[in-house]
Specification:
This protein is α/β, with parallel strands linked by helices and 387 residues long. The chain has three domains: 113 residues, PAS domain (Beta-Lactamase, 2-Layer Sandwich), CATH 3.30.450.20; 154 residues, Rossmann fold (3-Layer(aba) Sandwich); 57 residues, Helicase, Ruva Protein, domain 3. Helices cover 47% and strands 18% of the residues. The chain is built from 17 helices and 14 strands. Helix 7 packs antiparallel against helix 9, helix 8 crosses helix 9 and helix 15 packs across helix 17. About 1% of the residues have low confidence. This is Sigma 54-interacting transcriptional regulator. Keywords: ATP-binding, Coiled coil, DNA-binding, Nucleotide-binding, Transcription, Transcription regulation. Pfam families: AAA_lid_14, PAS, Sigma54_activat.
């Protein structure tokens, strides 16, 4: 007797047997027509028996009840097939279909289904976790790169400078005004850069201004900008000022002690009111900026002389950072020399070195121009052929 005939004759008892199985069972004839299906299978597929019994797998595929059929693969290959198929309900099941032959022809195909929707969900969740881990690793690398960049720009082994670097990174996390003091060439801009890049404003503008380089007559228009036709020679379109340019970010005022009293007064008002008014303008413009100032002057003495406003002094000196001169951190001279030597050898395609005797001379020198002077000397040694 053919298997298909046996199923038809014993349909009720077979139905009861397979309905008590916890895996889905489909049995079709050799043409792919569904002979019997159990409760677990119709529940998994979100179908009813009436929708599938007597229909071929090809028909079910065309109407969208299934998206793929292991039964049809068996009909083509005449051997066992296993697939993972997406159900019309959006779930997934793994189906293994086995052909059973009679007189050399496929008589029935028995398909066993296992609902793996939960497994697929776990797999999807795992993939999400993997992607999240990749993103976190990218962010960690970016953070480490930024950290390396900050540390790399400040070449030092001096304990005081290492403490200052750590302090600058910590200060970056709070939005207070900072005053960096020290002789010319000690690295005040480097510290300001570390503070900005350690802050929440790191992606916003970092505007650097050398106050000593701006002529007195241009200071107001440079800092505040101006409207169209504000004065003779003004641009026809007006101009945005440095305060507006730094909005959302950090404004670094190097040599702040060079500002005139009138500009100091206007700067104080910006710090108090958080708004600016362009030269020739009538409306106030809100600005959100952090001020980092630097000077090589004794501003307390300037306050006593009346050349620097006392109220502005206290506004800027919320967090003071004092940088030591290079002569007080001689252990950095060799380190910095080799650092600059490496930079300029690469820049000028040279292979210059500095011998022990020359290094000894450099370490005994007082370096009144500090790191800036050392950098200049090393560059001249590289390009001049000495060394």
């Amino acid at each position: 007797m053919r298997y298909s005939a046996f199923i038809r004759q014993n349909y009720d008892i077979l139905q009861e047997i397979i309905d008590n199985m916890r895996t889905g069972i489909w049995i079709t004839d050799g043409e792919g027509k569904v002979l019997i299906v159990n409760n677990e299978s119709v529940k998994t597929g979100g179908l009813t028996r009436d929708e599938v019994i007597g229909r071929t797998m090809d028909e079910l595929l065309k109407v969208g009840y299934i998206t793929e059929s292991a039964t049809l693969k068996v009909m083509a290959s005449r051997k066992e097939e296993c697939i993972v198929e997406e159900l019309g309900t959006g779930g997934h099941c793994m189906t293994t279909s086995i052909p059973m032959f009679c007189q050399g022809e496929i008589d029935i195909i028995v398909s066993v289904e296992r609902n793996i929707s939960e497994v697929e969900k776990l797999k999807s969740l795992l993939n999400e976790q993997v992607e999240m881990k990749k993103e976190l690793q990218k962010e960690l690398l970016k953070f480490q790169s930024r950290k390396d960049e900050l540390c790399g720009r400040m070449v030092t082994r001096n304990i005081n400078m290492l403490h200052i670097r750590e302090m600058a990174e910590d200060i970056g996390k709070i939005d207070a005004a900072v005053m960096i003091t020290g002789e010319s060439g000690t690295g005040k801009e480097v510290i300001a850069d570390i503070i900005h890049k350690s802050s929440r404003r790191r992606e916003a503008p970092f505007v650097k201004v050398n106050c000593a380089a701006i002529p007195e007559t241009l200071m107001e228009s440079e800092f505040f900008g101006y409207e169209q036709g504000a004065f003779t020679g003004a641009s026809g379109n007006g101009k945005i000022g440095l305060f507006e340019l730094a909005d959302g970010g950090t404004l670094f005022l190097d040599e702040v002690g060079e500002l005139s009293i009138p500009i100091q007064s206007k700067l104080l008002r910006v710090l108090q009111d958080k708004e600016v008014r362009r030269v020739g303008g009538e409306k106030s413009i809100s600005v959100d900026i952090r001020i980092i100032a630097a000077t090589n002057r004794d501003l307390k003495a300037e306050v006593a002389k009346g050349t620097f406003r006392k109220d502005l002094y206290y506004r800027l000196f919320v967090v003071p950072i004092a940088l030591p001169p290079l002569r007080e951190r001689k252990e950095d001279i060799e380190l910095l020399t080799k650092h600059f030597l490496d930079i300029f050898n690469k820049q000028y395609n040279m292979k210059k070195t500095i011998g022990p005797e020359a290094m000894g001379i450099m370490e005994r020198y007082q370096w009144p121009g500090n790191v800036r002077e050392l950098r200049n000397v090393v560059e001249r040694l590289v390009v001049s052929g000495a060394g």
